Amino acid sequence: MKNKLPFYLGFILMLTCSLAFSQTKSVSGTVTDEQGMPLPGVNIAVQGTNSGTQTDFDGNYTLNAEEGSVLVFSYLGFKNQQVTVGTGSSYNVTLQTSADELDEIVVVGYGTQSKRTLTDNIVKLSAEDIDEVPVSNFQSALVGKAAGVQITQNNGKVEGGLNIRVRGATSITAGTQPLYVLDGIPLYNANESSNGAPTNPLLSISPNEIESIEVLKDASSAAIYGARGANGVVIITTKTGKEGKAEFSVNISHGFSEPTNTREWLSGTQYIELFREAAINAVDYGEFADQAEAVDYIEGIFDFLAADTDWRTNPVNTDWQALAFQNGSVSDADFSMSGGTAKTSIFFAGSMNETKGIVRGNALRRFNGRTNISHKFSERFNVGMNLSFSRTDIDRIANDNQFTTPLQAIAQPQLSPAYLEDGSINENTLYANFLLEDKFAYYKTILRRVNGRAFGDYEILDGLKINGNFAYDLFYQTEDNFRGSQTPFQSTNGEAFASSVNAENYIVSGFLSYDKTFGDVHTISAVAGTELNETTRRFESVTANQFPSDDFQTVSGGAQIVAGEGSETANAFYSLFARATYDYAGKYLLKASIRRDGSSRFGANERYGIFPAFSAGWIISEEGFLKDSDVLSYLKLRGSWGKTGNADIGNFPSRYLFESVSYNQKAGISFSQPGNPDLTWETTTQTDIGLEFGFFNGRISGEIDYYHKNTDGLLFDVPLVPSSGALSISSNIGELENKGWEFILNTDNIQAENFQWSTSFNISNNKNEILSLPNDNNDIITGRNIQRVGEPVNSLYVLEFAGVDPANGDGLYYVNSVNPDGSLNKETTNNPNAANRIVAGNPFPEWYGGLTNTFNFLNVDFSFTFQGEFGASIFNDGGRFQSASADYFDNQTLDQYTDRWRQPGDITDVPQARLFGGNGTARSTRYLDRTDFVRLRNATLGYTIPQEAIERYGLSKVRVYVTGVNLLTFTDFDADYDPESTSDAGGVGVSFYSAPPARTFSMGLNVKF
Length: 1009
Fold this sequence. Notes:
mainly beta; 53 strands
């Protein structure tokens, strides 16, 4: 033993020396793809530690590591690779592609799945698709980038409601918006606005929080959400911390906005000439006894409009349009911190958006904060929490149908001064001067939102996990409106309105998940669980008037409380769901799902519904006869069928309801709604067939899809006989269909060492048709919209304008009575009461799509997206005042002056100017136009400072960029401001003094360290 002592002492000394020499050292190298191209942004982590880095723009990296440690290289679209650090200090790595983006993970609802083996139709958009786009809502950044998804904003107001349709409109009276799911939380998405114009409740979500957005389009993917999936499902996944080096990112941008388009209106001189002529022309139609009376009358009107200014020799030319619009601005600032170890990941983010709208008096300010944390207590037990808060302050203006909304100022003749000589606002204008509302009133809406989710999973056996979630979504909105004593139409010494809405959404879910591969060829994945979703809503409002002074601007300052309202309501869903997928040898794919939903909204006899779905896929390229092809790298055929529901109908349509009434100051109860115990949800059955392809190792890839959606049991209020005691009863009667094609093509055009160029193109077609309606398929007409069997939902229904009679300048209409043979009588008449309305347009496009190009040259990046829509129409309901041949005193569009009929033989489509003549002013196709357009939706140019210039300062990335939204529009549409402007006060495909979208230019700085 004594003889071995020197040996042990020597061994300990050698071990000590070895440990001393195995201290941390610098390791560097370059990461490339299979073609030798450098890969920027590759994550490199030292396994088992929180140390790591990323490659720079040229694919280079440097980090400190010990000998024997393992470096893990990971990059989206490529297989992970590990390298063990030896005695050397340089390690170059070539990453292998994982079948292009086909091994990308897609969120599918209660789980994830590889895109390669997906049998559903799901479109995925990453954070890069929405980053750095200067818009106040994340949905606008998706326009043109998702096949089969049409996104339009009502108008140019910063809070404007959005219409998002996934593969067409699947309902007439129930909701048509998709279900939004944020980190597993079905979001409350009701419009709670009290001023007649909708707001977007999802303004609370900041783009800098979002990791990915998946849109579930077919029934196979959406059926797992059962009774709420008929309009599609949008799954939003927020960012999480990644194992490796912590990263801090800051992004700051600022820009300015202007309207995408303005219109030309009559100057003061042109107005005088046109309306003097219109008054004289009216003599022939009995409006005045003679020309002298007509001239005397109209000049009296000019005197009033001019407000004591000299309209005869120096008419005022007030640009009311310029007063209604303003120079807008957009400021964004956000930061995020992410990082983690092998056990714990953390993500923090905060952001601020301040948007000054292009319409006077309209602005928005939003603050967001988010924390996402997860921790592995062991290899089998994982827990986490997501928590976010946002506050959005909106300065609002009146809805489009109010005289006090700024855009209705264009009706004021330019003869009228906006301000008087003493600087005060002119109160004696043709219509109410909106500047009085702008100065002496306010309407403020504040949205506060809290989302939280606690989750955990435990692996009971290999591949078998139990998962639990508790989520909470709080939507709290307050609205405050004060109109001082000097505001238009105010006769009560001021009025104040205040309201609050408190909506709480609770979700509890638990499910088992199982994932296992047997014999290397059989892969099974299954999910089964239950979910409870309860939503409560509390609303209250109060109105007061008779204020002692405009300095008192809240309800408590009013002497009289003149109105009040309060209500509480709730609804609940209880669900059981299951899904299973099977993959044989990576080429034969099967999937089935089922959900049983129960809802408190529906009748006692039909409270529960079952929503099944099936899908299958065949990866043909894995077969022996194609597997070794040098050209065809991927080919998959898939098909799906399933049922989904629509429960967006309010809380009590199936119940017998009573309401309180007051008679002679005595309280009473009155019957208000008949019940229907058989009322249930609308059901949509959808079939989808798709082909996915890839050529030349994924350099060219794409999809072709055909779908057919049939919605049955449409919800309608069916009229009842008066003796029943009620006007109508909610019933399931009616059927409609949507069908169409989708095509996607992605290409890597150039992949050289210093230059890369890729393109993504998508185009979609949708045909919508009503198949049956209640009451023996009788038409249902609401305003300018009609529901008619054989026509699209909400078709535009107006008279057909036949132009101008060249002999006398009369505006003409086609009679369009039905001939005995079923054809339409195309005789013309100048009497609109003798003509019949026709279906004249479709408010929804038949074709829509987008084209995105991305370029990288050395440190410069450039991308742009074009968006296009074709086949839709808009009816400008304000046209009968704005372009009315001087029928009344509203200012007119310039064409009413330049193109008007003046003498026999004139060929034009602008009738003779006739004061009070109503010449061609009936609601007709004269004010309807196709909205076909192609728009440069956004473009971004950026420059990343070389790594060697910034690494000395501890920075990993510094990028400056300029970006723009709605930069160019190519269209023949001229019925109103913009082909995407529609009224926020009702009607589908109808505009009415509606503001155009904003064109925005912005500059920004992004820093990471």
